[in-house]
Amino acid sequence: SFESAEEEYQGQTKRKRIRRKKQKTGLQNSNNLHGEQTESGMQETLVQDNLQLQQIESPKISKNKKRKMKKKRQKEKMRAAGLVTKNTSVDFTYQPDKNNREEAARLKDIDEKADSILDFLQATQQIYFADNKSEGTDSAVNSATAQELLQYLESRTISSSDVTLLHQLKSLVLLQDIERLKDALKQFQEQSMMLPDHTKIVTSLFHYWITDILPVKNRK
């Protein structure tokens, strides 16, 4: 009948309204819950960020630790961008080579010895030529050649082995050890890498110490 059909239609409509109301309520609850979770997550993130900022700005954290934290964050950003792999090392520590340090010390030692020999030979050659000891010797042994030798020493145009031999000769003169000085002078003549004229000048100057200066000193 018409009445029973109308009642059935109103019942269906009422049930649909109830279902829609329930769905709407459930959706609102879901949205509210999601909003609360989102808000809670944001608050948690803000708290963590604030804690990190406080840690970074804290005066108790050293500059070195801040630098490391900053470097770590940069590496994480680069890794996230696919620019750096986990095992890539970006730290390089400079360590001076031990051999380089030893070589620098050796060169400094040679330089100091050359300076002391230069002063010693300069003083000796002044006395030598003032005493006319160059008369009757080889024509290569003269004041000009002696001056050239001193210039070679001053400009370091001389081998380190010759500097070592010359320094040994000078040390024996200061020790006034004539016998050892004679042997060292022979060794110098055999091993010297100097020009022949320069070798003759050195031999003459040290021989002058052996024959004329040291014997007088020893007699006194």
Question: Summed up, what is this model?
Answer:
Residues 1-79 are annotated as: Disordered. The protein has 220 residues and is mainly alpha-helical.
Distance between the termini: 160 Å
Number of helices: 7
The multimeric state of the shown protein is: single chain
Amount of helix: over 70%
- Could you name the ranges where pLDDT drops below 50 across 5 or more consecutive residues? 33-38, 86-92
Largest sheet entry? none
Order of helices and strands: HHHHHHH
Query: Mean pLDDT, as a whole number?
Result: 74
Description:
The protein has a domain at 101-131 and 141-218. Mean pLDDT is 74; it is low at 33-38 and 86-92. The radius of gyration is 48 Å and the shape is rod-shaped. The protein starts with a helix and ends with a helix. It contains 7 helices and no strands. It is mostly helical and 220 residues long.
